Amino acid sequence: MKTVGIIGINGMVGQNMLAELKKINTPFEIKTFGRNDEITPLDIAVLCTDNPVSAQIAPQIKDRVKFTVDMSSEFRMTPGVPLVIPEINAHAITPNTPLIASPNCTTTGLVMSLAPLAPHYHFTEVFFCSYQAISGGGKKLLDDFHTPGSYYENNCVPLIGSVQPNGHTSEELKGLYETRKIMEMPHLKVYCHTVRVAVENSHSLGVTLKAKENFDLEQVKKLWNAFPNLVYSEKVITPKEASGLETTFICRLRRDVEEPNIIHYFVTFDNLLKGAAMNGRQIVELLLEKFV
Ligand SMILES: NC(=O)c1ccc[n+]([C@@H]2O[C@H](COP(=O)([O-])OP(=O)(O)OC[C@H]3O[C@@H](n4cnc5c(N)ncnc54)[C@H](OP(=O)(O)O)[C@@H]3O)[C@@H](O)[C@H]2O)c1
Q: Record's superkingdom (predicted)?
């Protein structure tokens, strides 16, 4: 029997990963590992752990597992490690990529909206401002949020991750570099501003996208609706409606007031599902189908 192990089973992503893996129809055994458990040989290990833990565990287990799927940002920009959203770049996974990274949750929402349009429009610039849910910061942040007097209560905090020497946060730099890697557009200009808001679950982004061509709004909506797990809605969709669902929702598409080659829109999606566990499950499914 094939085996898939979840390492970090007690965390937000680990718990969601367990529920997601149970949805897979092919027969395989799920094994779960907490902080002090020894990791047994596996066909696929899914690391639902923070960067330092993934950095330590991935090399330790590499001779015991065929493939490792890492949910942290530790290896995302490492050359030779594919950064995969199965709807977009499943081709990046091969028998020779034993380590696969799942992208940043906010970046995932952005690239889900960009990928269907990319074959039809030459993007020159993209700007987004994020409205990121508390659950994106893991269970400690969620516990803090539920403690009376939390800084995050009734607030929005424009600092996620750590401030880098150039003044951008680590989260903002993920938005830039991960987008370029997934889209295979190394020169795409991505401007971002990431903000934690007092929403328990589901991230949102306000996006402005500029292309060389003028946008045809009806074509854009059709392209989005034809893409798997993506829906354009004429009705406003908020994080409340997106929570618990596997769909990435886009709404409020409009052309720029002055520039027909610029569009503005709003994206919302469940950061624990498409932004993490669902994407991880889709990678596992692909590995089970093709390579394990
Ligand atoms: N939350 C999101 O929306 C999201 C989205 C995309 C990616 N990610 C990434 O996914 C990873 C997990 O995030 P999270 O939100 O689930 O964080 P979390 O809630 O803090 O969970 C992390 C888990 O790792 C466990 N752990 C620590 N050391 C371990 C070890 N040596 N062996 C096994 N387990 C160990 C912790 O165990 P204890 O319970 O004992 O402390 C905890 O349960 C992070 O890298 C995060 O950046 C998160």
A: Bacteria
